[in-house]
Specification:
Distance between the termini: 49 Å
Strand content: 5-15%
Oligomer: single chain
Largest sheet: 3 strands, antiparallel
Number of helices: 5
């Protein structure tokens, strides 16, 4: 019995690290396979419109990007390689400090790390990143870029949820239960 209690935290930690590794590797796999497909089927600079009615808005365009996500800051490939590696190290550092649970936050970090490393692979292998999702009003991007943005959105959502939870907890601590209030004016001013 005591051995099970001692082993459980290790098993929980292993599952949590497996989640980070699994999400990261899944993102990298999907990203690299999609880029390989684009390279094999679409010449550099060429576009393909899979759905006719979306043609004015969305198409696939094979682009080489030496800048940051969405083509921002072109010609900064080496700098962005270093930044992506630093971000990955920071994610691992903070991931190990997370309390048990919080699946959404853990998935968000895996998406961000997978996205960063997916683009790192391109930068190391090719010297640029392959982008191909082309939305007319937005710079061309790829699966890694999408996962980074999704991870940041999930992280933001989780931070907002935590802020809301803390505010509710603080309100509950500040407001006595209705039967403990001295008079009705105290109850309405405290708990609205």
């Amino acid at each position: 019995m005591q051995q099970d209690t001692a082993r459980r935290p290790l098993i929980v930690r292993l599952r949590q690290w497996a989640l980070l590794a699994g999400v990261t590797l899944f993102v990298i796999l999907v990203d690299q396979l999609s880029k390989a497909y684009v390279v094999a089927h679409l010449d550099h600079g060429a576009s393909w419109m899979p759905v006719g009615f979306l043609e004015p808005v969305f198409r696939f365009t094979h682009v080489h990007n030496k800048g940051a996500a969405f083509g921002l800051f072109p010609e900064g490939s080496s700098l962005f390689l270093i930044i992506a590696l630093v971000v990955s190290v920071v994610i691992v550092y903070y991931y190990r400090k997370l309390p048990d649970g919080n699946l959404l936050l853990r998935v968000a970090m895996g998406l961000q790390m997978g996205g960063a490393l997916g683009n790192v692979i391109d930068r190391i292998r090719l010297g640029y990143v392959i982008d191909f999702f082309h939305v007319d009003f937005w710079p061309v991007f790829n699966v890694s870029d999408s996962c980074i943005v999704l991870g940041v959105a999930l992280l933001t959502l989780e931070l907002l949820r935590e802020e809301y939870r803390i505010a509710r907890q603080q309100q509950a601590e500040d407001c006595p239960p209705p039967d403990k209030a001295r008079d009705s004016s105290e109850e309405t001013s405290c708990c609205g």
